[in-house]
Design brief:
3 strands; three-stranded antiparallel β-sheet; alpha+beta; Arc Repressor Mutant, subunit A; 5 helices
Length: 100
C-alpha cells in the first residue's frame, strides 16, 4: 500500500470521526460522560431525552470507539473510551470559550 493511499485512508477516517463529533446530541452525551460513567437511564434523565434516543446514539458512539461499556449487574455502564476523546472534547470547548 502506498504512503499516499494510507494518508488518504487516514484522512477519510478522521473525517468520519469528526462527523460523529458533529452531532450535537452525541456531543452532549459525551460531555455528560466527561467525568463519570453512567447508565442509559441516567444519561437520558440528565439530557431530558428518551432512553431509546440515548441508546441509538450510544451505539453510534461505541461503533466509532468514542464510548465504551461494561456490565454492572443488570445495568450497562457507559464511559468515554479513552483520554483522547476527553482531550478532543476539552480542546473543542476551550476553543469555543476563547471565541467569546
Amino acid at each position: 500500500m502506498s504512503n499516499m493511499h494510507t494518508e488518504n485512508t487516514h484522512t477519510e477516517e478522521v473525517a468520519e470521526l469528526f462527523k460523529v463529533f458533529g452531532d450535537s446530541t452525541r456531543l452532549r452525551i459525551m460531555h455528560t460522560l466527561f467525568d463519570s460513567e453512567l447508565c442509559v437511564q441516567d444519561i437520558a434523565e440528565k439530557l431530558d431525552m428518551t432512553q431509546s434516543a440515548i441508546s441509538h446514539q450510544l451505539k453510534v458512539l461505541k461503533n466509532s470507539h468514542l464510548v465504551k461499556s461494561r456490565r454492572e449487574g443488570k445495568q450497562i455502564m457507559y464511559a468515554l473510551d479513552d483520554d483522547h476523546v476527553r482531550t478532543i472534547i476539552a480542546m473543542g470547548m476551550e476553543h469555543i470559550e476563547e471565541l467569546h
